[in-house]
Design a protein that fits this description.
mainly beta, four-stranded antiparallel β-sheet
Amino acid sequence: MESSYLISSYERGIENIMNDDLLVEILVRLPLKSLSRFKCVSKSWHRLISDNYLQKRLPLISTGVFFRSEADQFKEPKYAYTSQNGTIQDFKLNFFPFHEESTIVDGCNGLLLYYTSVLRTYYVVNTTTKRWVSLPIFHKRTQLSLLAFDPYSSSQYKVVCFTKFRKNSAEVEIYSSETNKWDQHEIRFGVETDAMSATMHYFNGILYVLAYPNFVASINFTKISCDLIQLPEPMNRDGKIGHSQGNLYYAHIDGDKIKIWMLKDLKSSKEWKLKHEINLREMTTERNDGREQNQINLLAFHPEKDLVYLWVPGKMICYNLSETKLEGVWEFGKEREKAFLIQIWLFPCSSYLTKCLA
């Protein structure tokens, strides 16, 4: 009783000294792990920490990185996080009991999609909360499996299995976490299936896929529809699609420059605006040997700031487009010197992410 009384008195004292605004300013500066634990301090702290206003003030969770090293080409790709000291840290997935007997087939914004052929079962794993769920058994043969999750808008997710491709359409089975069941559909792309590339990005309920020669196919898995958006220039193998500050972005490397376009209004306007055109020499680190600019690959756009993430041999860099300067460099280290990235994600510590799979 005495201990409970002292804790209760301490909580009342803290809350009398600090108003919500001051407490929020303190909370946003705490490490994410500490913030999660402090939800248990009191009901008012739990309310503040769970509030969307504070969640939006938090920095992005360290970038999720999905990579494979040249020495381990035939082994499963590794999942990692960027650290504050400029290195890439492996993320242990052994909390998931079926990790050894399953295969990672996709990932999206902090969630990983596993599949085990023996049990014919898909699993969705939340790498932030270390929770996981198994999906209803899927009986059909799959040619491509995708995970669709947007932590900015909902705690729900979808798993999309393409079971058969036709000339300009595909048969799909879509699992929704909202209904907990698979539904069969057919999606018509508007272009030939062979024109669809493997470069895609999920944002605000839409899967955007680059399609040759100069299109973005926007696939809506709720309406089961696909619209085409014409690109400002014919796409090349360096093309990248993404979003930043609520807008759709497209970029590719043209000679010794990187060009970045923005599509401001997806609903009423289909016109692209050239937002940045920067020489690659300005985007490489000072510690290069003069050849990095010929080996740069676009990785992702920062979802909230005017930053772009790029891959150069042995490291990942973050470049500030507005201020034309480097913001960060993450070294892969000598043991992963020949590693190459498959995907990266930059996702917020939102209440939707922490509630997902709860």
